[in-house]
Fold this sequence. Notes:
Helices cover 17% and strands 22% of the residues. It is an alpha+beta fold. The chain folds into two domains: 28-146, Rieske [2Fe-2S] iron-sulphur domain (Rieske Iron-sulfur Protein, 3-layer Sandwich); 165-453, no CATH class. Keywords: 2Fe-2S, Iron, Iron-sulfur, Metal-binding, Oxidoreductase. Residues 27-146 form the Rieske domain. This is Rieske 2Fe-2S domain-containing protein.
Amino acid sequence: MLSAEDNEILTRVGPGTIMGNLLRRYWTPALLANEVPTPGGDPVRVRLLGEDLVAFRDLNGRVGLIQENCPHRGTSLYFGRNEGTAHAPLVAGEGLCGLRCPYHGWQFDVDGNCIDMPSEPPTSTFKDRVRAKAYPVHESGGLIWTYLGAPDTMTPFRDFGTDSLPPEYVSAGKTFSPCNWVQAMEGNLDSAHISWLHQFNAIDDIPDDGSDKPGYLSVDMSWKIWRHDRAPRLEVHDTWYGYRYAGIRTTPGGHTHVRITGFCVPYMTAVASIPFRSRLSMFVPIDDENTWRINAVAQPPRNPNGYGGGHELFDVTNYPYEARKFTGIRGRRWTAENEYEMDRDVQRNETFTGIPDFNSQDLMATESMGPIYDRSQEHLGTTDRAVIRMRRILLDAAKRLAENGATPPALAGVEGHDFRTFRSAEKILEPGEDWRILGTDDDPTVQEAMLATGEQT
C-alpha cells in the first residue's frame, strides 16, 4: 500500500504539484493530428495536466497550442476565427495568421504572439507587449506532442520511431477514461489479470496446435497458457528508461512461458506480444480524475503477422468479443452508466465478466475504483511487483526533482538513450534462455527482422 501522502503526490498533476512538475519535463501527446487536419480549420479544446488549452492548425499549416482564455478579457478562444490578419492578408500560404478572439478581434499566432489588435488605435504598440501562453509542439506518428515545462528545461523530442514512420503505417487512437491516470496505467502493468478478467470458456475447446514447446507459440496457445497457469511469477528488470518485467507461467506441457511488458517513464507501456512489439500505449492525464488512453504505432511492422509489430492478441480462435479498430477517437458505448452492458447469464456461462467488449473490461476494472483510488487501503501481493516498481520510480523521481532539482529519468539527449529499442516480447523459453534478451537489439529475432526490412536501430 501507499501512504495517503504518497498517493496524493502520485495522482495530482496540475500546475505546481510535485508529480505535475515531473510530468511537464517530458514531451506529452496532446491530441491526435487528425483532430486538426486542415490549415485554417476549426480549433479544438485540449485539457492536459489540468490546463485548459486550444489547438489549431493555422493557414500556413503550423499547429498551435495556446491558452484557452484570451489574455484580454478571458473569452474562450475555442470560439475564435482561424484566419489571416486584416492588415496583412495571407497570400499563397505566406503571411501572418492565427486565432482571432471573437470578442474584440485580438489575434494570436501559434507562438502566442499578439499579431493584431484592431480594437486599439493603429499607432498603438500595445499588441507587442501582450502574449498568450503557448507551448511548443512536435507532430509525429499521428500525434501532436507538446512540452508543458519551462523553456530552459526542454530536452529533445523522445523519438520512439514515429519521426521516421512511413505514412502507410501511421496509426494513432485514443479513448477517454474517467479515472486517474495512474490507476488506468496500472492495468497495463498487471500480467496476472489476463488470466481472469479477459477469460472466456471457449478457450478450453481450442485444439492443441503443437506450439507448446520452446520457441514462438501461436496466439491460441498463449491464451490457453494464461488459462492454464493463473498465478504468474513476476520478475522485474530495471532499465535506463524504466523497466521491463516478465510474467512467467508454466505451460500445459511443462515449459516456461514469458510475457514481457515494458514501462517507460512516465506513462508509456509496451504490452507483451509475439514475438516482439513496439506499439505505444500511453496514459496521459487530462487532469487528476480523467485520462486519455492513447495508442500509437511507433515503428513499421517487422513481423509477418501483427499490427505495428507482433501477433494480434485478438486473433484467437473462438474469440467472443467484437473486434474494434484503435484509430481516431474511440467512442464509449460501454460505460459505468450502463454497467458496461454486463450480462450476468453470460458471466455465469460464457465469459468471466459478462462484459461484451474486451477493452471495456479493463475500463470497468480501473474506473470502478472511483476517480482517484485510495491506495492506503489496498493489500498487494506478489503479482503486483511491476505496479509497485512503477509507483516507486515515479514517486522517487518527482520527490528528487522537488527537493534538489535532480534530472528526471528517461529523458532524450543522453548518450545511449535510443527510445526505438523500447519493445515488448513473448515466447516459450529454450532451456537456460534469459528472458531479458527477448525483444532487445541482442535478440536474434529482432536482428533478423531489422535485416529483412533493411532497418537499423
